[in-house]
Design the sequence.
């Protein structure tokens, strides 16, 4: 069974590039572009891993992350966060909300692949940062 | 540090020069020789009428006894000391007067640089505020970074040299082309936006500072003819529509639109005050009662705050004392400052909570009148009138918006007026000792102290401990 990733991002050309890179690596890539309904999309699609942008229409990536972690079903779901700002306070906020990994835009394609595959490999063992209070 | 240390010493020196005996001088001003001795040895504070009498007996100007160097310069130096970061060598705050007297040029430089530094700090604060909270900037940066991210990723795919389906190649090339266009537009917008930052409404001074220096340039008095022009309909101080600026509000000193709008509001209000209190009435009140806002209000039917504003902004004239004025809003933020020599409200930051201004703020519509003694070298006394009034007559549901106004009159001007007036002297209760700002106030055991003072040695014991 193919590994499934849900990409929550609203920039069409970024979606296209990431979809291409991950598909070629053997991933099944599904996408979602709206913040407000993102949690519902995760519930419906049950991906193995989520790539989550911070700046989304309707709801911020931080809020989506908190909502997902509040649900026991997604407490251990690997979530890679993408943000245009690499500021420490954003990282701290994402970490406190239970992010699994964090990536700053613009990213390199190999960096993206390494991050996604790394999270998948660690998938069975709970990621330390994730087990917090969410 | 005894605050009026040098005043006593100067009285003693002057008396010796005049060849007067302590006992004779004491008798001529109606105090005991022992008391004069205490004063001369700086063991008793002195001010007000007694000081005036002593100056007269010693044939000197009052200022010669009280001011070693210029009081504003000393205030500025104290401010600089208060704001400075920790230095290797402690600042000799007990010798400020000596420094200002011996090196007036250097002292002036310190004061001027402090002023410049404060302005620059404000500007940096305003700019970083803008960078942190400006929605346009944040959107523009997000747009540029998103586009760069897409371009980098797409270029990475095309550049990897792997076999890529020709359809996908065409698609990625088109995406890159589109994104590069977007990036060009976005970065241009960003650059032109950054170019304008600091030009339009980001003048180095806060708008209120601009208005105050503009008013100071006219000695806070608007020409009476500017005030006599008819009031345009609908002009209100709270309205966001600004009445057409007349020439005085278009001064070169008002560079930002915000400052011009504030100045226009000020003018509008001054006009209404002048219309309600014509010069003839003002002069009659000044002649009969001196600068008494209650008398002016009673004669003209204007409200007390308006009477205070009117008195504080009269053109200079023979025998007319300069009066100071401050106003604050309900948050206690000073919204207007007309300083007087010896009592300069702080330019930035919070003032002294003991001011009658704030006492009035606590009890809206109850006028407050107190003699205040301002800490400083020398300490000076003023008669302060204050009142807090609603700014806008509002409905029952609207938030209550108030403004407190305080007029302060140098005590000698009050005494001059009292001497001329037939009215019995007013009972104003005890003298309230006040400061401007805790950092530069040496008053010990002040129940209202917010933070330790730089100027006093034993604040540690009094800070927050002595509330009785």
Sequence:
């Amino acid at each position: 069974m193919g590994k499934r990733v849900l990409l929550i991002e609203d920039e069409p050309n970024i979606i296209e590039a990431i979809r291409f890179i991950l598909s070629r690596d053997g991933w099944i890539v599904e996408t979602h572009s709206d913040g407000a309904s993102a949690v519902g999309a995760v519930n419906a699609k049950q991906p193995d891993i989520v790539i989550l942008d911070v700046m989304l229409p309707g709801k911020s990536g931080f809020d989506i992350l908190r909502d997902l972690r509040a649900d026991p079903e997604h407490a251990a779901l690997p979530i890679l966060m993408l943000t245009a700002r690499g500021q420490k306070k954003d990282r701290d906020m994402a970490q406190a909300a239970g992010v699994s990994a964090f990536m700053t835009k613009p990213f390199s394609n190999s960096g993206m692949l390494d991050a996604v595959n790394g999270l998948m490999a660690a998938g069975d063992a709970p990621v330390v940062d994730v087990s917090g209070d969410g | 540090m005894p605050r009026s240390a040098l005043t006593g010493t100067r009285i003693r020196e002057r008396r010796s020069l005049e060849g007067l005996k302590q006992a004779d001088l004491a008798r001529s001003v109606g105090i005991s020789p022992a008391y004069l001795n205490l004063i001369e040895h700086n063991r008793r504070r002195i001010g007000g009428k007694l000081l005036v009498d002593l100056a007269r007996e010693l044939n000197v100007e009052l200022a010669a006894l009280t001011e070693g160097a210029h009081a504003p310069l000393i205030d500025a130096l104290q401010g600089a000391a208060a704001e400075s970061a920790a230095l290797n060598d402690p600042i000799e705050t007990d010798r400020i007067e000596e420094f200002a007297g011996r090196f007036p040029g250097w002292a002036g430089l310190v004061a001027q640089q402090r002023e410049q530094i404060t302005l620059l700090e404000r500007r940096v604060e305003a700019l970083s505020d803008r960078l942190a909270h400006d929605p346009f900037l944040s959107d523009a940066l997000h747009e540029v970074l998103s586009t760069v991210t897409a371009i980098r990723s797409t270029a990475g795919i095309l550049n990897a040299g792997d076999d890529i389906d020709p359809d996908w190649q065409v698609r990625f090339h088109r995406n890159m082309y589109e994104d590069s266009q977007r990036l060009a537009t976005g970065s241009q917008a960003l650059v032109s936006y950054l170019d304008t930052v600091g030009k339009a409404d980001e003048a180095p001074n806060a708008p209120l500072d601009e208005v105050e220096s503009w008013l100071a340039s006219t000695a806070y008095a608007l020409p009476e003819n500017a005030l006599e022009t008819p009031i345009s309909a609908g002009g209100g101080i709270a309205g966001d529509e600004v009445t057409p600026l007349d020439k005085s509000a278009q001064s070169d000193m008002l560079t930002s639109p915000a400052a011009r709008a504030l100045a226009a509001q000020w003018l509008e209000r001054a006009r209404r005050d002048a219309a309600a209190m014509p010069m003839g009435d003002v002069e009659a009140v000044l002649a009969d009662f001196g600068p008494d806002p209650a008398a002016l209000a009673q004669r003209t039917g204007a409200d007390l705050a308006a009477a205070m504003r009117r008195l504080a902004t009269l053109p200079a004239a023979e025998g007319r004392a300069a009066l100071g004025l401050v106003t604050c809003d309900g948050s206690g933020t000073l919204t207007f400052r007309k300083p007087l020599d010896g009592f300069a409200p702080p330019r930035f930051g919070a003032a002294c909570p003991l001011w009658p201004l704030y006492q009035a703020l606590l009890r809206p519509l109850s006028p407050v009148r107190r003699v205040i003694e301002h800490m400083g070298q020398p300490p000076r006394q003023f008669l302060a009138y204050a009142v807090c009034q609603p700014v806008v007559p509002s409905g029952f549901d609207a938030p209550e918006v108030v403004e407190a106004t305080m007029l302060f009159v140098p005590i000698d001007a009050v005494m001059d007026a009292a001497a001329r007036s037939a009215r019995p002297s007013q009972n104003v209760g005890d003298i309230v000792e006040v400061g401007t700002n805790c950092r530069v106030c040496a008053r010990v055991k002040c129940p209202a102290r917010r933070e330790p003072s730089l100027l006093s040695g034993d604040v540690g014991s009094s800070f927050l401990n002595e509330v009785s």
